[in-house]
Amino acid sequence: MNITRENLDALNAVVKVDIAKEDYSDKVEKILSDYRKTANIPGFRKGHVPMGMVKKQYGKAVLVDEVNKLLQDALNKYLTEEKLDVLGQPLPKPQDNIDWDADGFSFEFELGLAPEFHVELKSKKAITHYNIIADDKMIDEQIERIQKQYGKLVSQDTVEEDSEITGTYTNEEEDIDNTVTLTLDKFKGKATSKQFIGAKVGDVIILKTKGLYDDDHELMHALKIDHDRAHGLDIEVSFTITEINKRELADLDQDLFDKLFGKGEVTSVTELKAKIKEDAEKQFKQQSDQKLLNDVTEYLVDNTKFDLPGEFLTKWMQASGENEMDAEQAKEEYEKSEKSLRYQLIEGKLIEDNNIQVTVEDIKAHAKEMIKVQMAQFGQMNPSDEELDGIAARVLGNQEEARRISEQLISQKLIELYKEKANLKVKELSYENFVKEVYGDK
């Protein structure tokens, strides 16, 4: 067997594989001999079928199969030994009318080669790294939500601004009949809220659905109708009040602290605020890191310049896609995926240049931490190592889940690399202002 390569340019090559008869003949003869021992052909005893008949019936199929196996193994070995960084998979050049009676065969494969390039993390313009803090306003609002959640309902005679009102939306023609509990701050307009102030149990309030809530999703849930029906709905509905309550805030005492965090973990309002701030900012860090990852990724894709073997990759996508594509569809598919492919190459280069690795132990430790957090949400605060190991083993037995965790860890390591080496400027702001700046005022 002989394998040669012709580099057409820096990104494209053709590999030629010459297979001689001696490369496959012994293997083919052995397989046919084994067939002869077991072949069941009418008129002949098992094991006594003439070899000529076996070859005539099975010879070409065995030959084709063995040549293809030999070809694939040889090609894979060659790519490994030559340390060729290929994109996609080798594409066989079309060959018409192969003479399988010949004493040797030649096959050619097109290769798309990965480009050589350098990744520069130090951008000229600094990339913003947000440090999101839980400000006093957010902490106070969270404390009030907790007090309401753990507070008690007190019945009222009439509706006030802070009442919780239970009632039923109805419209007989539209077949609407849904009981809900609401607060007046959920309505879009102040005029709607004013209709409720002073109302009593049994009163019926007529409301227009158009502009009743900020968006159609809230209307959909309030009336218990599907999304398409809620969109742009402009009818009148009746709201019959059946219950009026006021929620008394729970006292900020040790009993509440123990319910929230476990006995003795928090013993004062000051400690409560500190705990809420700590927990909130842990969540904010994840959002900040994800934003940083997205921004650095965008910078790297836009500013790391290299060419790709686009024509080869288009043909490869057309040949290997699950669904049949013509040349134009394959071109569109390549153009849609080019940015993603560029980042995969950039990420791979960063991982290689900075020796970023994720071990089996890393994946197991991360899985155990995730499981501990989930168990804590259900009140299991101190699971044993044995219990965690057992659950982690079951989780990681799912290859898809193990791959997902590995990718998470790679992303975390890349974020730490960016924090260390990229040109960043830290901007501290509240979560409310972060949302306004990054996502717009929603």
Describe this structure in words.
- Keywords: Chaperone, Isomerase, Rotamase.
- It is an enzyme of class 5 (isomerase).
- This protein is α+β, with helices and mostly antiparallel strands.
- The protein folds into three domains: 2-113, Alpha-Beta Plaits, CATH 3.30.70; 152-248, Transcription elongation factor, GreA/GreB, C-terminal domain (Chitinase A, domain 3); 281-439, no CATH class.
- Helix content is 51%, strand content 19%.
- Strands 6, 7, 8, 9 and 10 form a five-stranded antiparallel beta sheet that branches. A four-stranded antiparallel beta sheet has the order 1-2-4-3, with helices on both faces. A two-stranded parallel ribbon has the order 5-11.
- Strand 1 and strand 2 form a beta hairpin.
- It is elongated.
- The protein starts with a strand and ends with a helix.
- The mean pLDDT is 92.
Shape: elongated
Radius of gyration from CA coordinates: 34 Å
Order of helices and strands: EEHHEEEHEEEHEHHEHHHHHHHEH
Biggest β-sheet strands, sense, barrel: 5 strands, antiparallel
Helical content band: 40-55%
Query: Which parts are unreliable, with pLDDT below 50 for 5 consecutive residues or more?
Result: none
First CA to last CA: what distance? 67 Å
Number of domains: 3
Global structural class: alpha+beta
How much of the sequence is in beta strands? 15-25%
Q: Oligomeric form of this entry?
A: single chain
Q: Number of DSSP helices?
A: 14
**Strand runs, count:** 11
Average predicted local confidence, pLDDT: 92
